[in-house]
Amino acid sequence: IDSNNQELLPCLYDKTNPGNGFTSSGYFVWNKPQNKYAAKVSKNGKLGLIDTLNHILIPFEYDGIDIDGFPFSSSKYYVVENNGKSGVVDAHNHVIIPAKYRNIWLDEHDDNQIMLFKDRNTMIADTNGNITWEIPGYSLGFPRDSLIPVENSAGKYGLMDFNRHLVIPCNYLT
Prior knowledge:
Largest sheet: 5 strands, antiparallel
Number of helices: 0
Low-confidence stretches: 18-35
Shape: elongated
Mean pLDDT: 76
Radius of gyration: 19 Å
Structural class: mainly beta
Helix content: under 10%
């Protein structure tokens, strides 16, 4: 319902995220400009994203969609989940990373980096789905200031440069 008490979205969905724009009855309450935000809703047990005009942005085909922990998002990329595996789609539902990873993190400081976790390996991919970093035996963090935080199998931390040399050995607990 808008500020003039006009219905923007009918109650068509199984579930919406109450607060921050939705009420528990499923009505959309948001006063931002049209089409700038996506909202996570479910239909027939699957999640999708809609805009403020009720256009479906991401079809209702996912078990989970991460939109930065908020019911609304203006993100370019979304972590999606099906059958316990994670992948990444863009705002037009184009698959960037197939849903085959244990976990995925989007870099909050650089939206061109995606952290992938599969088995005991950690990889960094770009937004074209290309793996740009993979170092077996280490868990990687997002690169910062030309260094990559790493954790070895013993749970100790250090820093690696882009040539895959340990600049600071993994001798630290934090």
